[in-house]
Amino acid sequence: MSVKFVAYNNGVLLPQSKPKRLYKCECRIRLMKMLSDADVIVVLSCVSGALLPFARNTLGKVIASHFGSPATSHINPQNLRRLLNYQNTVKYRRNLLVAMCQQEYLPDHDGRRVRVIERDLTEPDRIVGELLQPGGYLKLIELGLEDCVEDIDAQRVFGYALFKDGRNTRLSYPLEKFHSDVAGRSFHNGRFIQRMREKASSLPNVQLEQGTVSSLLEDNGTIKGVMFKSKSGEIKKAYAPLTIVCDGCFSNLRGSLCNPQVDVPSCFVGLILENCQLPYENHGHVVLADPSPILFYRISSTEIRCLVDVPGQKVPSVSNGDLSKYLKTVVAPQIPPELQDSFIATVDKGNIRTMPNRSMPAAPLPTPGALLMGDAFNMRHPLTGGGMTVALSDIVVLRNLLMPLHDLHDSYTLCQYLESFYTLRKPVASTINTLAGALYKVFSASPDEARQEMREACFDYLSLGGVFSNGPVSLLSGLNPRPLSLVVHFFAVAVYGVGRLLLPFPSPKRIWIGARLISGASGIIFPIIKAEGVRQMFFPATVPAYYRTPPTE
Ligand SMILES: Cc1cc2nc3c(=O)[nH]c(=O)nc-3n(C[C@H](O)[C@H](O)[C@H](O)COP(=O)(O)OP(=O)(O)OC[C@H]3O[C@@H](n4cnc5c(N)ncnc54)[C@H](O)[C@@H]3O)c2cc1C
């Protein structure tokens, strides 16, 4: 066995002159080259200063998990060599790479073979997944995938602009504490997906192929693999110790892996406006319209995505012209004047797409041999553009759980261990899910006076700025996924609304509306929290699965 140590960036932090992105990219290319001529490569980034404890800790954990040794306090080549010699009875897998560049290491190169079966490998053309929150971008960085938003004409997103009854307010993401590269990104979903597919298929241990999975192969309650139809029409079977099922919102494979309670509160009607300007460039635009919100955001340097929410499970008919009439007479008058001409011209051109907005709380049925992920597992209203952030955050959680494991063949033990996934994902997932569901209800128009007050109060609360906008926006962006903070802000909005009703002179009618506002707010948020799971959401540390340790091999 050949072991190669490479000390990287010795004692020096990232050169200021070089963009972090570029630097990381260079690191990765060099690492990939090294991979070819050694069995084990350990790349050390001898970072200094504040990062040192973090570096030692993280690298220590990775090494400890791969080589079965306790975490080390001092990471240097001698210690590692000693560690490896000491543990030389452990079976090493070829091409194991333990890498860490700055805070990053590359566990996707851990030698595990991955077979990806995707129904259609051509570039998707969809109206979904076009705005990635900054929290999602941070997850891309953690996964070493941030370059997937490069060279696709992706646009940076720095926050939101809210519009209501002729008034507007700008809400910026609180990005001050982050690297200048960190922001939201909006793009053509298909271009982003293709970049990720290219990246996956460039890895020697990943096999990406086109095929439609028809069923899961089960044996004695354990999932052994999948049956699929290949591109050439052949029926094939693929076996693996762990099958990750992520076939999206229309999943036909999730049936035995979860208890799906799908709700379709509304549909999005999607249009692309060309060659016009947004009132606030590099911001998502949310119009609090009647009956429900309308979104605008730039997806390329020349195109603006418009998503019009239509409550209910059906949209007016496209074929008989009802939809374009609805868009021109009901929607157009409510959108910012700068966009109206382009909006009407786009409707006249007729390239209108629709998509149901689904929400489904995570209700897993842990099954040996399989794990459900992405929209197949958990969905929320797309108003806040949180789906990809939740999916990427789940991937990071799963990646970290799988990293210490050498062998996935003991399905029952693995399944028990992976139950911790459902709790560990909760802070991010439940915050984004709850906020999406609650905001959709609050932002939609209602004949109920109390709900109108709540909507108005929400707009005004966010317009206050400072902590009143930073708090909710950092929750929405995935930058600060804290469920408790979400509940505090939600009820602060309600209390703010009641205060406005009662001051300066409360009348019996206003007191009554205030009471209904509080009860309406509770009626919105508590059912969502109940579906998310109160204990997992607020007290994850009390859930026994939270403490599951990797199975010993
Ligand atoms: C209208 C709308 C707008 C949205 N906008 C945003 C947004 O702006 N930002 C955001 O973060 N999220 C948004 N979302 C949510 C986001 O799109 C999803 O959360 C995200 O795409 C989930 O990723 P996924 O991989 O689970 O599913 P998908 O992206 O749907 O991927 C599933 C994949 O599985 C493949 N597949 C399906 N069945 C099979 C099969 N039988 N065999 C083989 N392959 C199969 C499909 O071809 C597809 O490639 C939006 C959702 C909707 C409905």
UniProtKB/TrEMBL annotation:
Q: Name the pathway it acts in.
A: Terpene metabolism; lanosterol biosynthesis; lanosterol from farnesyl diphosphate: step 2/3
Residues annotated as domain Squalene epoxidase: 240-512
Q: Localized where?
A: Membrane
Q: Which UniProt keywords apply?
A: FAD, Flavoprotein, Membrane, Oxidoreductase
Q: Which Pfam families match?
A: SE
Record field: catalytic activity: squalene + reduced [NADPH--hemoprotein reductase] + O2 = (S)-2,3-epoxysqualene + oxidized [NADPH--hemoprotein reductase] + H2O + H(+)
Q: Which domain of life is it from?
A: Eukaryota
EC number, as in UniProt: 1.14.14.17
Topology in the lipid bilayer: Multi-pass membrane protein
What's the protein called, per UniProt? Squalene monooxygenase
Q: Which family does it belong to?
A: Belongs to the squalene monooxygenase family.
Requisite cofactors:
FAD
Record's function text? Catalyzes the stereospecific oxidation of squalene to (S)-2,3-epoxysqualene, and is considered to be a rate-limiting enzyme in steroid biosynthesis.
Chief location category? membrane
InterPro entries membership: FAD/NAD-bd_sf (IPR036188), Squalene_epoxidase (IPR013698), Squalene_monox (IPR040125)
